Every structure is written in C-alpha cells, then in structure tokens.
Amino acid sequence: MTAAPSVRAPRRRVDGVLLLDKPLGLSSNAALQRARRLFAAEKAGHTGTLDPLASGLLPLAFGDATKFAQSLLDARKAYRATVRFGAATTTGDAEGGVVREAPVAFSAADLVAALLRFTGRIRQVPPRHAALKFEGRAYYDYARAGIEIPRAAREVEIESLTLVDWSPPDAVIDVRCSKGTYVRVLAEDLGDALGSCAHLAALRRTASGPFALDRAVTLDALEAMALSARDALLLPVDAPIADLPRFDVEATAAAALLQGRAVPVSPPAPAGAAPSPAPCPVDAIRVRGYGPDGFLGLLAAADGWLRPIRLVRGH
To answer: Alpha helices of the chain — where are they, by DSSP H?
Structure first.
C-alpha cells in the first residue's frame, strides 16, 4: 500500500521580526526555513549570515519586515569569539585542517596590546573561503578547486575588542564591529601580530543593531510552543528601523504615500506645485512614516517633500 503524501500546512501572511538564537551545525538558511515552517509564513528572510560553526543572534524578518531588513544587514554586530593560538587552518576556523603550528610565547598583556592595535578602522583581506563573488563565482568555489584569485583588502571598523579570558592557547574576546568584518581573519591577523598563528575556534553573535541575544529564542523552544505563542514573540514590522526619526501624517497624505506619491510637508510647497516625482536627494533624511492606521514605511524628507522609499502592504 502506498503511503498518503504528507500535507503541508497552508502558508499565511506573517509580518514581523523574530530574534532567533541559531544553533551550531545549521546554516543560516536552514535555520530560517525551519522557523518559516513553524510560522507557516509566506515570506521570510534572515538579516546576516552566520556560518554553521557559529551560533547566536540571527534576526529573521517575515512578510513586510523583509522590506526593512537591509538596515540590520548594515548594522554593527557584536560577537564573543574564542581564538585558538598556535595553529593555523586552511579556512581560518575550526572547520579546516591545521596547516601550520607555532609557539604561544606571549603574555596576556601582549595580547591586550595587540587588541588595541586592531581597534578602529583597519583593512582586512577577505578569507579564501568567503561568500563574496569574483567573476560571478563565490570565493569558496575557487578555494575548493585550489584556484587562487585576487582578494582586495577592504576597510572595516572594529569598535572595541575586550579580552574576557586568557587560558593559553585560547583567548575569549568580545568583538564589536561594523558589517563586513571577518572575525576569523581578525583571529589570523592577531596570531601573526603576536609572532604566532591562530584560528577562530568558536563564535557566538551577541548583538545585531539594536537587538541583543538575551531576547532571542531557540528553535527547540519555538517547536514546543503553540502557534499563538510564536506569533506573540514577533517584534513589529518597523523594529529594524526603530532608530530612525518618526514622522506622522494625516489620512490624505498617508493614502497618497501608500500609492507611491510624494506629499508636501512643512514648509509648504509653492501654490499649484505638483508632488515631485524626482528621485530622493542624496542628502534626504530617512524617517519612519506613520498614518492614522499605523506604520506606512520608510520615507525620505527633503526639499519640503516626503517621498516613499519602501512601503508596507495596504492596511
């Protein structure tokens, strides 16, 4: 007898942000898909990749929140990293094989001094095993094929590096940094700077933009909840841009903005002037727009006009 095919629960509209504590061993996309199934959500995306060997905060955007997730991709991040000195690997982390070993002959004071040298704006050469693209293919594709490609250094900003624990050969370091920072490259560079070598042994993201890990939920906890309890965990759609100024408009202006039209704001436009269809000026102020029925979307305010940039679906 042929077994009946399993029936997938119908997808539904879900809007909001979930703070997920991604476990070790899962890719960011695999964690996203598990969460999406639990919410039966039509649309979802994550806001910054964590490797399978990394855990911690992974904000997930559902529905309309995906339109505003770029701000989290661009946001500063915080990590707790374990750097293992004395061994370099093929990948710069614990996944790769050891290719070089060196003595660990420095003190905690030497390590703190090195951390200070890597604080601020620095230049990093992306790792060979990265998702960046060269001529249409990911770096890691070339690395797996044994092909060397040019990897240009990029500027990143390390806001702070704090030594939490030093138990040779392992150092636990809190890192606050800009987007695009490779913590495994930082580990390798620290090893070189201290006359040794190193790789990233463990990584846990503790913050992303305004969100902290202590508010995150695990997949196991989600699976044990009723759907209504999962929904109650969702932050509002405007959470990713909550740090932007708020701008409220009346009903007529709100309706026009939702139709993609610019509207005049104080100071008023000249009499008889029509809303400008021109692109937003580069010096426009980005704001969160709200009408009588709630959040409208991301708007730009400049030259006496409010222009829609990215809007929610109709209320």
So the answer is: 28-39, 70-73, 108-117, 139-144, 183-193, 219-223, 227-232, 251-258
